[in-house]
Amino acid sequence: MNSASPHQTTPQDAADTRPILIVPYMWIGDFVRGHTVVRVLKQRWPNRPVDLLTTPLCAPLADYMPGVRSGIVWELPRGRLALARQRGLAALLRERNYGTALVLPGTWKSAIAPAMAGIPERIGFFGEVRFGLLNRLRWGERSLPRFIDKNASLALPAGAPLPADWPVPQLQVPAEEITRWRRSNAPGANPAVALAPGSVGASKRWPYYAEAARLLAARGLEVWVVGGPGEKALAAEIVAAAGTGVRDMTGTDLRNGVLAVAAASVAISNDSGLMHVAAALGTPTMGIFGPTSPYLWAPLNGLAATVQTTTPPPCEPCQRTICTMYDHACMRTILAADVVTLAQQVLAEAGARPGH
User: Fold this and answer.
1) Could you give the CA distance from residue 7 to residue 155 in angstroms, rounded to a whole number?
2) Cβ pair 102, 123 in contact under 8 A
3) What is the band of 102 on the pLDDT scale with cuts at 50, 70, 90?
4) Residue 116, SS3?
5) pLDDT band at 244; cut points 50, 70, 90
6) Percent of the chain scored above 90 by pLDDT?
7) Quick check: is 37 in a domain?
8) How many distinct structural domains can be found in the chain?
9) Residue 280 domain-assigned?
10) Are residues 69 and 192 in the same domain?
11) Quick one: which of 11, 163, 166, 352 is 20 to 30 A from 150 by CA?
């Protein structure tokens, strides 16, 4: 994908300096993909500051996104309106004098605070009947098959044609920060492979990470298992099965995971948030796909390798979070030895250097 501007900046656009708020999706991968929206906005309005609403979990990602002025950290509970929290957020947004809010999720709840704050221009799809909450409603969401098309189109003028290519998401970590992290957490000299065995939905989890970790470590590579607290037990199983040379890097701080992936020479991941993090960082990334479609869900950045079974069952891709047919054949038939061989090819092509 190239990064050519999908919208021509006018003199009026260049003169506009009113801040813009983006209300993004708060899943890690979706949050990363939201950086494309930032880039489209900055191309259209180069002098308008762009802020992102974020949860505490995703806040470190905003720190590494070029073009983002700041992340507005505010936790809104899932599953309920929490009007007191909405009013508090609205007061904060009102103080910042936003001229425009882009509300990416289609939920009623996501549009409440921008409306209460009186942001003059509130853009989003019709979604959950959001008359009044949004005053620049867009239509035709269901005609856009890809997640990125739905989101990034909101940054264009209403009715504008979609570009052939969108700007790709970027996460930029200063080199000295990566060096400090490696010195403190993994001072070894060998190239490292980051394994991301977690995902939302058990059907997207490749079952052979422990065997792959053992084979990679046997070839003299450092192996780091990355993920959140939900992957702690899985990481412990992988470390116990794979032995020396494999480290558990999971934890509650997403920043630590970002730095680990940035320091790695290659990342191997399920279709998950960390796959999008790795690709946006520019780390050569291998994405393992079974029940989900790479066309719809692979990073815009592209992957060093898209890994799928050579004998797909008739149900692939099913898009289900739990396998109910064919005994998870879409993932079980992807062999660890094949993934490790492919990882070595990716490392060789990337010219992995010791200590990176």
Assistant:
1) 9
2) yes
3) very high
4) helix
5) confident
6) 75
7) yes
8) 2
9) yes
10) no
11) 11
Evaluate whether 98 touches 72 at the Cβ level (below 8 Å): no
Q: Is the pLDDT of residue 1 over 50?
A: no
Q: Which domain holds residue 141?
A: 11-155
- Could you tell me the two tokens for 90? 């609205």
Q: Specify the CATH number for the domain of residue 266.
A: 3.40.50.2000
* Three-class DSSP category at 246: strand
3-state DSSP assignment of residue 145: coil
**What residue type is 306 in one-letter code?**
T
Looking at the predicted structure, is the pLDDT value of residue 3 above 70?
Answer: no
Note the Cα 35 to chain centre separation in Å: 9
Asked if the structure places residue 167 within a domain, the reply is: no
pLDDT digits (tens, 9 = 90+) for 25-81: 999 999 999 999 999 999 999 999 999 999 999 999 999 999 999 999 999 888 788
One domain, residues 145 and 189: no
Are both 185 and 327 inside the same structural domain?
yes
Same domain, 195 and 314: yes
Query: What is the token pair recorded at 117?
Result: 């704050």
**Residue 213 included in any domain:** yes
Give the dihedral of Cα atoms 251, 202, 312, 27; nearest 10 deg: -60
Q: How far apart are CA 234 and CA 224, in angstroms?
A: 13
Residue 356: band (very low, low, confident or very high) from pLDDT cuts 50, 70, 90: low
